[in-house]
């Protein structure tokens, strides 16, 4: 599998993941620092996300200190479904129900052993959609379309019980 991997800092967990991926036979494209310097996390995320969305990579893995920055940046790219996963079960769910195609990890909290568990869960779980899952992904595709066509977005389309003005907390 062709994988695009990026990190804003070069920490031991990044090197361990790169080694694991190569050992497992993946072809890896890496974006990030080669030494102790750092690179801006939005730039790294954009490179990996565009690789995945454009087909240069089948999937991607991103790292930043919390993992949230790279996941937010990657999800700005149409076609990307980046998931910040702090454990193997979350990775399984992201793949099975959300058809996630880009794994985001925290440099602060992800140990080498935990990264291995998460990556194993990620690559051994396939998307098995229910009709509800497909409907949710259709909403994501609609939101992506609307982001680039704001003139076509209805003023208010949410349904629910009451309006925000009618909602009260106790």
TrEMBL record:
Q: Does the keyword Isomerase apply?
A: yes
Disordered as annotated region, ranges? 148-170
Basic and acidic residues bias (residue ranges): 148-160
Report keywords, A-Z: Isomerase
Q: Which NCBIfam families match?
A: rpiB_lacA_lacB (TIGR00689)
The record's Gene Ontology biological-process terms are: D-allose catabolic process; pentose-phosphate shunt, non-oxidative branch
Q: What is this protein called?
A: Sugar-phosphate isomerase, RpiB/LacA/LacB family
What family does this chain come from, according to its entry? Belongs to the LacAB/RpiB family.
GO molecular function annotations of the record: ribose-5-phosphate isomerase activity
Q: Which organism is it from?
A: Longilinea arvoryzae
Query: According to the entry, what is the taxonomic lineage of the organism?
Result: Bacteria, Bacillati, Chloroflexota, Anaerolineae, Anaerolineales
Q: Which Gene3D superfamilies match?
A: Sugar-phosphate isomerase, RpiB/LacA/LacB
């Amino acid at each position: 599998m062709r994988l695009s991997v990026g990190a804003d800092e070069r920490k031991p967990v990044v090197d361990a993941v790169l080694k694991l991926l190569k050992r497992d036979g993946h072809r890896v494209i890496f974006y990030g620092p080669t030494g102790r310097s750092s690179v801006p996390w939005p730039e790294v995320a954009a490179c990996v996300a565009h690789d995945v969305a454009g087909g240069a990579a089948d999937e991607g893995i991103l790292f930043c200190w919390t993992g949230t920055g790279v996941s937010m940046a990657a999800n700005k790219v149409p076609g990307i479904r980046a998931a910040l996963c702090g454990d193997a079960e979350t990775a399984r769910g992201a793949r099975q129900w959300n058809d996630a195609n880009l794994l985001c990890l925290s440099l602060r909290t992800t140990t080498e052993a935990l990264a291995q568990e998460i990556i194993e869960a990620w690559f051994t779980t396939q998307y098995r959609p229910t009709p509800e899952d497909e409907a949710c992904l259709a909403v994501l595709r609609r939101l992506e379309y609307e982001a680039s066509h704001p003139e076509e977005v209805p003023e208010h389309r949410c349904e629910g019980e009451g309006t925000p003005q009618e909602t009260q907390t106790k």
